[in-house]
Write a structure and sequence with these properties.
Length: about 375
């Protein structure tokens, strides 16, 4: 099967995309990765040699051509360049990473190639972003969404939320793949590190690190040797300062640490006892799942989509109904090494349902079925 995978930008520093397309190619598919970006092609990940990668508007060594492409990036729509590429390559199916990618491969185009639209986060968030665009862009996106053959969502509960927005198209649940960790390389919870981590970008509205600072601050006096570490990209220095100020209010300013990005996050997991994850919404919660595969018990909120499916309350972690419940369950985890070991063991076992082999075979089946239904 000839597959065209489309991503708007930063293709070559998206680890998930590289793993995804490499796995498809190893199943025997003819994979073509395509983007249209003058500046944000990305770097850092490796695509297999048999994968074709094309940037329709990338920089070259020719200065005149670069000047032309720079102007073209700002003055013309990428959909025209994608249209020419699609007519030339004639893929069997197109897989879009972002809604903008769907726009680029369907707007003002008449091809009959089936399109699979990936939904990388909570679907209502995606559609709310579209609703905030101008009326003309909303109309264009509505037209493009009708051309989707299949929507792929990450957890089963998302199917219902998408049906409210997308019409009658097929909706399939395929989760993210979770790298499996051998038992002898998982986090050793028999040794207490007295460390709570939260791995996510530092962001107030979506990730809500302040809720963990508040919960920890309430009980910190009972656990004088414990610390909290936030790991993730830092984009909002004002929020960083809010977190530090809140820690100071609770007298734990020397025990709450904003650590930034870590290039090998498994090293962080190895030194943790608990992964507290007070996010508001997730598409899948891959950082959460990865830590669970390392055998770390997790703590989240009952209201949080995706998190409330990965975490089974009382089995592989805890879910808090509100900040008080979240705080009480954090305390339970901090008090008992035996409880952490039990829940952590169950977490690692539960993540076996998301092995890369299982997930890529689901994708292989979806691709073949989508092409067959179109023919």
């Amino acid at each position: 099967m000839k597959l065209m995978i489309v991503k708007d930008r930063n293709v070559l520093n998206t680890k998930f995309l590289a793993q995804f397309v490499n796995s498809l190619a190893r199943l025997g598919h003819d994979v073509h990765v395509v983007c249209d970006t003058y500046k944000k092609q990305g770097s850092g990940v490796t695509l297999d040699d048999n994968i074709s990668f094309t940037n329709l508007n990338g920089k070259t060594k020719n200065h005149l051509k670069n000047a032309y492409r720079f102007l073209r990036q700002n003055l013309s729509l990428p959909c025209f360049r994608f249209s020419k590429f699609i007519k030339k390559e004639k893929p069997d199916v197109i897989i879009c990473y972002f809604p903008i990618d769907l726009f680029n491969v369907t707007f003002l185009q008449k091809h009959n190639i089936p399109v699979i639209m990936m939904m990388h986060c909570y679907p209502p968030i995606i559609f709310n972003r579209i609703q905030k665009k101008s009326w003309l862009k909303r109309l264009a996106y509505k037209h493009c969404l009708k051309k989707v053959s299949v929507f792929q969502v990450l957890v089963k509960s998302f199917e219902k939320t998408l049906k409210l927005s997308s019409g009658k198209q097929k909706i399939i649940t395929i989760p993210n793949a979770v790298v499996q960790i051998p038992a002898n390389k998982q986090t050793d919870l028999s040794i207490e590190k007295k460390k709570i981590i939260y791995v996510a970008r530092i962001e107030k509205e979506g990730k809500r690190q302040h809720l963990l600072v508040e919960a920890f601050g309430r009980i910190a006096k009972d656990f004088p040797d414990w610390h909290v570490e936030f790991w993730g990209l830092e984009k909002y220095q004002k929020y960083n300062q809010e977190l530090l100020n809140l820690a100071t209010q609770y007298g734990v300013e020397d025990r709450v640490h904003i650590c930034g990005y870590h290039p090998c996050i498994q090293e962080v997991y190895l030194e943790a006892d608990i992964h507290a994850f007070p996010s508001l919404h997730e598409g899948f919660g891959l950082a959460l799942a990865d830590s669970m595969a390392m055998g770390i018990p997790a703590l989240g909120f009952t209201e949080t989509p995706s998190v409330n499916e990965l975490i089974i309350d009382g089995h592989n972690g805890f879910l808090g109904e509100n900040i008080d419940d979240f705080t009480n369950k954090l305390k339970m985890l901090m008090e008992s090494k035996e409880l952490r070991q039990k829940l952590g063991h169950n977490a690692a076992e539960d993540m076996k349902a998301y092995t890369p082999e299982i997930v890529i075979n689901m994708w292989d089946k979806l691709i073949k079925e989508t092409i067959a239904e179109k023919n």
